[in-house]
Amino acid sequence: MPNKSYHHGDLKAELIRTGLKLLDQEGYEAFSLRKVAKACNVSQTAPYRHFKNKDELIIAIAMEAMGAFNECLQKAVDQHPDNPKKQLTEMGIAYIHFFVENPEYLRLLFLSDMRYKMNEYFCAHPEYFQNDHPFQTFFQTIERYKAAVPSSNQSLGKAELMLFSWGLVHGISILIANKEIPLEGDYLSMVRKIVESEKFLD
Predict the structure, then answer these.
(1) CB burial readout 7-24, b (16+ within 10 A) else e
(2) What is the C-alpha separation between 187 and 191, in angstroms, rounded?
C-alpha cells in the first residue's frame, strides 16, 4: 500500500490524532512510534522527525487534549461575561459534555497510568499552559463566583465549592462516559437539570 502524502505539519497532527486512538486501545506498554507510523501508513522513521520517542508523542497528545478541554470550558465562560453563576453552571455542563463526547480524553487524562507521567512533566514545564490550563480556568471561575456573591449568602467556602463542584461534574462525566448507568434520551437535559438545581450555588 503506498504511503500517504503529508505536508510536514500535517503529519505531526496526524501522528497525534492517530496516536491518541492507539494509546487508548493499547495502553502505554504496548504503544510505540512504530505502530503509530504503521497506522498512519508512513515509514517507521517518519515519526522521529517530530518526536524523539513515544513519551514525547504522549505529551503532545496530552497537550492537545488539555488544549481542547480548556477551549471548551473557556467558551462556556465567555458566553456569560457578566454572570459568574451562569459561567459556573455552563462550565460544569460543558465539562460533562466534553468528556462524554471524547471518552478517550477522559481515560487519558484521568483514568490511565500515564497521568502520573504527564503530571510530572507539566509540573516541570508550567510554561506550556500559563493561562490556558483547564483547571486554572475552572478555579478562576470559582473565584469570580465567590467574589460576586455576598459572604452572608455563601454556604460553602472557596475550597469546599471547588471540591464539590469539580467532584459533581467529574463523577457524572465518568458515569455517563463509561456507561455505568443506563440512560435514555437527551443526557444533556438531565445534566442541566442537575447542575442548575444544585443548592450549593446560593
Answers:
(1) eeeebbebbbebbbebbb
(2) 6
The residue range of the domain holding 182 is: 60-197
In this structure, which amino acid lies at residue 72?
Answer: C
C-alpha cell at 168: 459533581
pTM for this entry: 0.85
Is residue 202 domain-resident?
no
Question: Measured between alpha carbons, how far is 109 from 172 in angstroms, rounded to an integer?
Answer: 16
When divided into structural domains, the chain yields a total of: 2
Q: In this structure, is residue 96 part of a structural domain?
A: yes
Q: Are 93 and 168 contacting, i.e. CB atoms less than 8 angstroms apart?
A: no
CATH number at residue 22: 1.10.10
SS3 state at 52: coil
Q: What are 22's three cell numbers? A: 492507539
Predicted confidence pLDDT, tens digits, the chain (202 residues) = 445 555 455 899 999 999 999 999 998 889 999 999 999 999 999 999 999 999 899 989 988 999 999 999 999 999 999 999 999 999 999 999 999 999 999 999 898 877 777 777 777 776 666 667 888 899 999 999 988 887 655 678 888 889 999 999 999 999 999 989 888 778 999 999 998 886 656 5
Those residues with Cβ within 8 angstroms of residue 164's Cβ, 6 or more apart along the chain or in another chain? 156, 200
